[in-house]
Amino acid sequence: MALIRGFGLVVLMLCALSAWSAGIELRDFDDPVKEQRYRDLTASMRCPLCENQAIDDSDAPISADMRERVYQLLDEGKSDTEIIHHMVQRFGDYILYNPRLEQRTYLLWGLPVGLLVLVGVVVALIVRARRHASAKALSPDEQARLDALIARKESS
Amino acid sequence: MKRRWLLFLLPVAFLGLALFFFERLSQDPADRDSALMARDFPAFEATTLADENQRVDQSLLKGQLTLVNVWGEWCAACRQEMPQLLDLADRGIRLVGVNYRDTRENGLAFLNEFGDPFAANIFDPEGDLGFELGVIGAPETFVVDAQGIIRYHHKGYVSPEDVRNRLLPEVEKWR
């Protein structure tokens, strides 16, 4: 029993340690929706110092500051868009894993859709051309040759 | 088919995109510009490092071009760049420090030991002003023109070469 209890304690301590080492603070939220928004927001922002970690997953002091700020802004009742704008104003578009849709990102967001439409148009054109070709009348040469073949068959 | 030549567009487009992505990917993301470039130095209210009763705000940076250096006693690269900052101050450039995430005691001891090139130091123990500036770690240096607009941003250690090749030309440009 004592062994099991001791083991449980070690597991608990390890959990606490891993939560601490991933820089995750324990936070109180008055409502679960806010908590989910906090999780989503901190997962959607890149740590400006460490190249490929979200701020919810990073030990860097700046990430801790940013998590704290997200928490404060949520507490003040700011919307997700306002919070993202607040962060981008200070740290730049770099922190967004998903670039926002704006004039200079139209190409980025539009290119996949544009290519898909283009492929669709090309396929439709090819199909139409083929269908047209199969229904086309024979050329005079071909018609003459066909007539000759039929005549030979009939005369034999 | 007369339109067969259109097929050549495929490899050309592929090559073009590949070159474009290659060029973009070989850029160091750490070299990106500050989000505050060409914007007003953020509004703030703080005390100075030397005097807890002296209040300062963004008007401190208006009237003449200023180099704003974000530093802390705990930051090793800040010590190494002090000779360069003293050199800049000797050339008649106005420097204002932001004492970032530091204590008064440590900050003042640092200036005693390594010299004080700063006309004033903004005391920022919680890193609030640093956050507004988008600072991700000391040292960082900003060129702020006489209108209080951020014109240049240098991340990290300022070497003597950086002074010659980057900071001095930028100071000349915006003076």
UniProtKB/TrEMBL annotation, chain A:
GO terms for biological process: cytochrome complex assembly. Pfam families: CcmH. Residues 1-21 form the signal peptide. The keyword Iron applies. InterPro entries: C-type_cytochrome_biogenesis, CcmH/CycL/Ccl2/NrfF_N, CcmH/CycL/NrfF/Ccl2_sf. One of its GO terms (cellular component) is plasma membrane. The chain crosses the membrane at residues 106-127. Residues 10-149 form the CcmH/CycL/Ccl2/NrfF N-terminal domain. Keywords: Cytochrome c-type biogenesis, Heme, Iron, Membrane, Metal-binding, Signal, Transmembrane, Transmembrane helix. One of its GO terms (molecular function) is metal ion binding. Belongs to the CcmH/CycL/Ccl2/NrfF family. Possible subunit of a heme lyase. This is Cytochrome c-type biogenesis protein.
TrEMBL record, chain B:
PANTHER family: THIOL:DISULFIDE INTERCHANGE PROTEIN DSBE. It is a single-pass membrane protein. Keywords: Cytochrome c-type biogenesis, Disulfide bond, Redox-active center. It is found in: Cell inner membrane. GO terms for cellular component: outer membrane-bounded periplasmic space; plasma membrane. InterPro entries: Periplasmic_diS_OxRdtase_DsbE, Redoxin, Thioredoxin-like_sf, Thioredoxin_CS, Thioredoxin_domain, Thioredoxin_ResA/DsbE_sf. GO terms for biological process: cytochrome complex assembly. This is Cytochrome c biogenesis protein CcmG, thiol:disulfide interchange protein DsbE. It holds the Pfam family Redoxin. GO terms for molecular function: disulfide oxidoreductase activity. Residues 35-173 form the Thioredoxin domain. Belongs to the thioredoxin family. DsbE subfamily.
